[in-house]
From TrEMBL:
<keyword id="KW-1003">Cell membrane</keyword>
<feature type="binding site" description="axial binding residue">
    <location>
        <position position="269"/>
    </location>
    <ligand>
        <name>heme</name>
    </ligand>
</feature>
<comment type="similarity">
    <text>Belongs to the COX15/CtaA family. Type 2 subfamily.</text>
</comment>
<feature type="transmembrane region" description="Helical">
    <location>
        <begin position="20"/>
        <end position="40"/>
    </location>
</feature>
<dbReference type="GO" id="GO:0006784">
    <property type="term" value="P:heme A biosynthetic process"/>
</dbReference>
<comment type="pathway">
    <text>Porphyrin-containing compound metabolism; heme A biosynthesis; heme A from heme O: step 1/1.</text>
</comment>
<feature type="transmembrane region" description="Helical">
    <location>
        <begin position="207"/>
        <end position="233"/>
    </location>
</feature>
<keyword id="KW-0560">Oxidoreductase</keyword>
<keyword id="KW-0408">Iron</keyword>
<keyword id="KW-0350">Heme biosynthesis</keyword>
<feature type="transmembrane region" description="Helical">
    <location>
        <begin position="263"/>
        <end position="284"/>
    </location>
</feature>
<keyword id="KW-0812">Transmembrane</keyword>
<protein>
    <recommendedName>
        <fullName>Heme A synthase</fullName>
        <ecNumber>1.17.99.9</ecNumber>
    </recommendedName>
</protein>
<dbReference type="Pfam" id="PF02628">
    <property type="entry name" value="COX15-CtaA"/>
</dbReference>
<feature type="transmembrane region" description="Helical">
    <location>
        <begin position="105"/>
        <end position="123"/>
    </location>
</feature>
<keyword id="KW-0479">Metal-binding</keyword>
<comment type="subunit">
    <text>Interacts with CtaB.</text>
</comment>
Length: 349
C-alpha cells in the first residue's frame, strides 16, 4: 500500500524590519507635509472655514453651487466672519475652504498610511517581537491628533475670532511628537534589520535635557503662531528698538503675561532659540566625537537654517512663505534631533 507523505509545513513568516522602517520614514514625510499645509492654513486664516467635523462625509468638498452656498452660510454664523471677514465673497470663501479641507484630507491620509499597512504587516506576522504595541500606539496617536484638531477648531466657533493658542500648541506639538516617534521607531527597526540581536535605543539623561529645552522652544513657537505674536516686531535683534520690548502687559500677573502676552512670548521665543541651538550643537559635537560626523553635520546644518529662517520671518514682517518654510524646517529639525538622540542612545553607538 502506497503511503502518502504529509505535505511540508508552511515556512514561518519572518519579521521584516527593513520594510517597516521604510514605511515609517514615508509616513514621517507625510507628517512633515501636513505640518506645512497646517502652517499655510493658519497664515491664510483658513482654519475656521469648515465648521463641522465629519470624518467620513467631509472627505468630499461641495460639488455644486448650492453646496458651496450652504457651507458659506454656516461660516457666516461664526464670530470670525462677523468680526473680520464680513462681506467676503463666495470665491474668497472657497479659497480658505480649500486649505482647511486639504489639511484635513492629508491628516486622514496619514491615518490611512499608518493603519492599513499596519494591519497588513500584523496579518503577515511581519512585525518583530516587541514592536507591535509601539506601532499600534503611533496609529492611535493619529486618531487622537484628529480629535485634538477638531477640539482646536471648536474653540473658535462660538466666542472667539480665532482658535485658542493653547489648543493650537497641543495640536502642533502632538504632530511633532508623532513625527519624532515615527523617526525613532524607524531607526530602531533599521538597526534591527542590520543586526537581528540589536536592542532598541534608550533615552539618556542628556537626551532628556535636550528634549526638555527643545520642547520649551516648540511650545513658545506654537504660542507665537496662535497669538500672531510674530507681527508685534519686525526688527532684529532688537524688538522695536528695545532689547526687552515695550508693551508687555504685566497687569494680570507674571503667569498671565508669560502665557498670553504676544510681546513677551515673541521675546522669549527669539532668545530661547539660542539656548535650544546650543543644546543641539552640543549634541552634534557629542555625535561627532562618537564617529557620527555626517549626522552631526546634518544636525548643525538644520539648526543654522532654522535660526536664519526665524530671523528672516521676523524682518520680512511674517511673509507667508518664509513663515511656512520656518515651520517646515522646524519639523525637519525635530526629525533630525530625534534621529540624533536615537544614535546617542544606541548600545553600539
Amino acid at each position: 500500500m502506497t503511503q502518502i507523505s504529509p505535505s511540508p509545513a508552511p515556512a514561518a513568516r519572518q519579521p521584516r524590519p527593513a520594510a517597516l522602517a521604510r514605511w515609517l520614514w514615508a509616513v514621517a514625510l507625510l507628517v512633515i507635509i501636513v505640518v506645512a499645509v497646517g502652517g499655510i492654513t493658519r497664515l491664510t486664516e483658513s482654519g475656521l472655514s469648515i465648521t463641522e467635523w465629519r470624518p467620513v462625509s467631509g472627505v468630499i468638498p461641495p460639488l455644486t453651487e448650492a453646496g458651496w452656498v450652504a457651507e458659506f452660510e454656516k461660516y457666516k454664523q461664526i464670530p470670525e466672519y462677523q468680526a473680520i471677514n464680513l462681506g467676503m465673497t463666495i470665491e474668497g470663501f472657497k479659497a480658505i475652504f480649500f486649505w482647511e479641507w486639504l489639511h484635513r484630507i492629508l491628516g486622514r491620509l496619514v491615518g490611512m498610511a499608518l493603519v492599513v499597512p499596519l494591519i497588513w504587516y500584523a496579518w503577515r506576522r511581519a512585525i518583530p517581537a516587541g514592536y507591535g504595541w509601539r506601532l499600534f500606539a503611533l496609529a492611535a496617536l493619529v486618531g487622537l491628533q484628529g480629535a485634538i484638531g477638531w477640539w482646536m477648531v471648536a474653540s473658535g466657533l462660538e466666542y472667539r475670532t480665532d482658535v485658542s493658542h493653547f489648543r493650537l500648541a497641543t495640536h502642533l506639538l502632538t504632530a511633532l511628537f508623532l513625527l519624532a516617534g515615527l523617526v525613532w521607531t524607524a531607526r530602531d527597526l533599521g538597526t534591527l534589520a542590520r543586526n537581528s540581536a540589536a536592542r532598541p535605543a534608550r533615552l539618556t539623561g542628556p537626551a532628556v535635557a535636550v528634549i526638555a529645552i527643545l520642547f520649551v522652544q516648540l511650545l513658545l513657537g506654537a504660542w507665537v503662531a496662535g497669538l500672531n505674536a510674530g507681527y508685534v516686531a519686525s526688527t532684529w535683534p532688537l524688538m522695536n528698538d528695545h532689547f526687552v520690548p515695550e508693551g508687555i502687559d504685566w497687569a494680570g500677573g507674571a503667569w498671565l503675561a508669560l502665557t498670553n502676552d504676544p510681546f513677551l512670548i515673541h521675546f522669549l521665543h527669539r532668545w530661547w532659540s539660542w539656548i535650544a541651538a546650543l543644546a543641539l550643537l552640543l549634541l552634534a559635537r557629542t555625535l561627532s566625537r562618537r564617529g557620527a560626523a555626517r549626522e552631526a553635520g546634518l544636525l548643525a546644518l538644520v539648526i543654522a537654517a532654522q535660526m536664519l529662517l526665524g530671523i528672516w520671518t521676523v524682518v520680512s514682517g511674517v511673509s507667508m512663505w518664509v513663515a511656512v518654510l520656518h515651520q517646515v524646517v522646524g519639523a525637519i529639525l525635530v526629525a533630525t534631533a530625534a534621529a540624533s538622540l536615537h544614535r546617542l542612545g544606541r548600545a553600539d553607538a
